[in-house]
Task: inverse folding
């Protein structure tokens, strides 16, 4: 269990290196990552959303997240699901992100 917890922390740290090009805050702090699940075989499923369905990086951002998570040592398979429920809103941002954006 501790191994998966450490791996999840490493995955989240890697996701924190991924930015929405229009907003100077990483996508984790923006609240775009809803869940990171690691199964017993160290396969990772990331549930995420985008700020809107018309987001200009809708085609590339999930692939970027997938590639970054694959680069974490110990990760087996990676699946990124883009979901729209619940819809993203600024309240989902971390306190750090709100301060960064002056909200």
Result:
């Amino acid at each position: 269990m501790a191994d998966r917890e450490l791996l999840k922390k490493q995955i989240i740290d890697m996701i924190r290196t991924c930015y929405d090009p229009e907003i100077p805050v990483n996508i984790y702090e923006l609240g775009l990552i809803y869940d990171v699940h690691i199964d017993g075989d160290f396969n990772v499923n990331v549930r995420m959303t985008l700020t809107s369905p018309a987001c200009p990086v809708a085609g590339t951002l999930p692939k970027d997240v997938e590639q970054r998570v694959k680069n974490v040592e110990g990760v087996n398979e990676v699946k990124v699901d883009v979901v729209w429920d619940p819809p993203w809103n600024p309240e989902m941002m971390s306190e750090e992100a709100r301060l960064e954006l002056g909200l």
User: Anything to note?
Assistant: The CA atoms of residues 25 and 58 lie 17 Å apart. The mean pLDDT is 92. Helices lie at 2-15, 61-70, 95-101. The radius of gyration is 13 Å.
